[in-house]
Amino acid sequence: MDKNTGNRLPAPGLPTAGLSTAGLSTAGLFDHHLTDEGLARLWSMLDSGRYEVRAPQEAALLCVAWLVRAGESAAAAALVEEIRPFAGEVRFAPHPSDRPVPGADAVHVRTVGEVAGMLARRAPRPGIAAQHEALTVWRPFEDELLDHWLRAGADPGQDAGQDAGQHTEEGAALLARYRRLAATHTRCAKHLDPKSNPAVLRRALEEQVAGRALSPRLAGLLRRARGAAGAARPGARSPPRPVRRPR
Questions:
Q1: In contact, 68 and 39? CB cutoff 8 Å
Q2: HEC secondary structure over 186-217
Q3: 62 has a pLDDT exceeding 90
Q4: What pLDDT score does 245 carry?
Q5: What is the DSSP string of 80-136?
Q6: Rounded-to-integer distance, Cα 40 and Cα 32, Å
């Protein structure tokens, strides 16, 4: 029974008062904080703020103590029964502290040197770095590659008259930049997949710059890759359609 409110405690029949928390197992610590002494200890922590919660679940028994003192014994008992099956594996009690919890208006200040040192010690996350490279390096390059082929006209296997020389020159510049990017940015390897649309666009460009006619198979793959990539990029320009003259 809570001496302050007269409310029934949520777990009767647990260890008696006077039990020290030193050396208790996780389950023993859980049971102890549901005794008169344990609840009094939690109320003292709530009043003084002298506790430390290192993980969210370590505030569970503080919530139980607050509910009991607020007259919400049924809610406290329901919370206890919900978490009790895990009491042998998970710590639900806070850690005692010599200093109260900082207020919401507290400001923590570190020197520039301390912050710089902390940032320098942070190891890059490979997955995040690869995603960043894909979005900031390879996606823009693939957009340029796609735009190059969309400007090639309705038949990607042939250049149009006087624009052929300029088109080939631009293609050579794109391939040179691709080689520089591939040598520098090695986190994302999706562009190396020979079956991907960007790889097909690039392979066809290599043939065109070398002055070789596209094979029927590569020309077909190019048309399909160009159409699929163009549909996936709303801002991409569609190739002009040939005009059919009436017979």
A1: yes
A2: CCCCHHHCCCCHHHHHHHHHHHHHCCCCCCHH
A3: yes
A4: 41
A5: HHHHGGGTTTS--SPEE-SSPPPPTT------HHHHHHHHHHPPP-HHHHHHHHIII
A6: 11
Backbone angles phi and psi of 119, in degrees to 5? -65, -35
Write the Ramachandran bin of 19: left for phi over 0, alpha for psi from -120 to 50, otherwise beta: beta
List residues bridging with 95 in a β-sheet. Answer: 52
Burial of 162 (0-12, 13-18, 19+ CB in 10 A): exposed
| 113-130 pLDDT, tens digit each | 888 888 888 887 888 889
In whole angstroms, what is the distance from residue 162 CA to residue 72 CA? 85
- What one-letter code names the amino acid at 47? D
β-sheet bridge partners, residue 52: 95
Lowest-confidence pick of 157-161, 187-191, 241-245: 241-245
Spatial distance between the Cα atoms of 205 and 183, rounded to a whole number of angstroms: 19
3-state secondary structure of 173: helix
Residue 201 burial (10 A CB sphere; 0-12, 13-18, 19+): buried
Band (pLDDT 50/70/90 cuts) for residue 242 is very low
Q: What dihedral do alpha carbons 136, 139, 145, 146 form, nearest 10°? A: -140
| Amino acid (one-letter) located at 7 | N
Per the confidence metrics, is the pTM higher than 0.70? Answer: no
pLDDT above 90 covers a percentage of the chain that reads 47
Helix (H) or strand (E) holding 166, with range, is helix 164-184
